[in-house]
Design a protein that fits this description.
This protein has 175 residues and is an all-alpha fold. Helix content is 70%, strand content 0%. The longest helix is centred in the N-terminal third of the chain and has 44 residues, at 2-45. It is elongated, with a radius of gyration of 28 Å. The chain starts with a helix and ends in an 11-residue tail after the last helix.
């Protein structure tokens, strides 16, 4: 009887050991699958090289409105599924040398932060809430542009004005 109990315990211990190994193997496979999935997602997100955005957007011209250009850049980056942490590198390739020198003076951490770069560019072009307000009030439709273009421009000026004032309850309203 004693030998039967010992044998039964050994069988139970072997089964438990086999279950532990199987569970470890299953967990290992699950981790490997998750790693492969993350690598696939990462490679898919990084498939958009900066030269593809260079083909979609022309280099920024200093005579243009930087706020409209940044909005176009943000839209194209979102449509191309470029992760926001890589926007700064794509944007640098589209800016003229005068502006990149301004950015080069920033710390590396600030230069990699797209939101910081955006506010720096708007400040350097002196697009304060007051300037957006003036642009919104005085903007007129030019004959070579469509009414839709005019609408987009006025909407950009209005949103820049409101966002610059940090009016939170109006930011959901778009004209």
């Amino acid at each position: 009887m004693y030998e039967g109990i010992v044998e039964e315990r050994k069988k139970r211990e072997l089964l438990e050991e086999r279950k532990r190994r199987d569970n470890l193997e299953l967990e290992k496979l699950s981790i490997e699958v998750q790693i492969e999935l993350n690598q696939e997602i990462f490679s898919r997100n990084n498939r958009t090289p900066s030269n593809e955005l260079n083909k979609l957007l022309p280099k920024f011209d200093m005579k243009e409105d930087i706020s409209l250009y940044l909005i176009l850049f943000e839209c194209q980056s979102c449509m191309r599924n470029v992760p926001k942490e890589f926007w700064f590198s794509h944007l640098l390739g589209l800016l003229p040398q005068e502006i990149t020198q301004l950015i080069a003076r920033e710390s590396e951490q600030e230069a990699r932060d797209y939101d910081h770069l955006r506010s720096l560019l708007l400040k350097s072009f002196k697009l304060s809430p007051e300037k957006f307000s003036q642009l919104f009030v005085t903007h007129q439709k030019s004959s070579d542009k469509t009414w839709r273009d005019f609408y987009q421009e006025v909407q950009t000026f209005f949103n820049g004005w409101i966002e610059g004032l940090d009016v939170k309850y109006l930011t959901n309203y778009r004209i």
